[in-house]
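Researcher: I need the complex structure. Ligand is thymidine-5'-diphosphate. Inputs:
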Amino acid sequence: MTGLFVTLEGGDAVGKTTQAEALEAWLTALGRRVVRTREPGGTGLGGGIRDLVLHRPEAITPRAEALLYAADRAEHIATVVRPALARGDVVLQDRYLDSSVAYQGAGRVLDADEVRRLSLWAADGLLPDVTVLLDLDPAVGRARRADRERFDRLEAEHDDFHARVRDAYLALADAEPHRIVVVDAALPPDEVQQRIRAVLQPWVGTTA
Ligand code: TYD
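Model: Output:
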């Protein structure tokens, strides 16, 4: 059995965690071994980087931020993702290089192609088989987050930042329609789940 690399992308509070949990249960019931992981923070080193990029009060310059995400990615892909794929597992990953292109490229206004090349260099060229983009109006995402007490550094960015991130994601999906599938995250969570399963179904070789 060959491994399958699936990434979930989208703005903040689009419901990636809920969807990943339900997907893991479905794939496991189908007999697949699933490694559910995330960036930043999928390794020991990554846990420290996650803390640095998200929870420290001092500002980080855009290039330093991009390099920290890339360092997290390099360690994670080499030590967690590639070994899992080599074993034939399904890797279900919350965020990957498209996050860097959208957040550091469009959000922080670095050059998107350079950010993408940096990520691909960090990951030694690994692209997902399938990327599910959970698309949501940032205003709806903000309302979903309203009852949370603490925002991380990127969540706390202004509306214009999140609008640019969304537009960048949609442009990525337009540019790579064979890899990136857009699912409307404003739909009820069960419906979102059914749509994602329908996308993955040909890859896992069974009916959704
Ligand atoms: P995450 O913990 O997945 O938050 P959320 O639950 O909102 O998805 O991601 C943390 C933040 O890191 C998120 O705001 C997006 C940001 N991020 C980047 O800016 N660049 C990246 O390459 C990655 C992986 C995440």
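Model: Summary of the prediction. The chain has one domain: 4-204.
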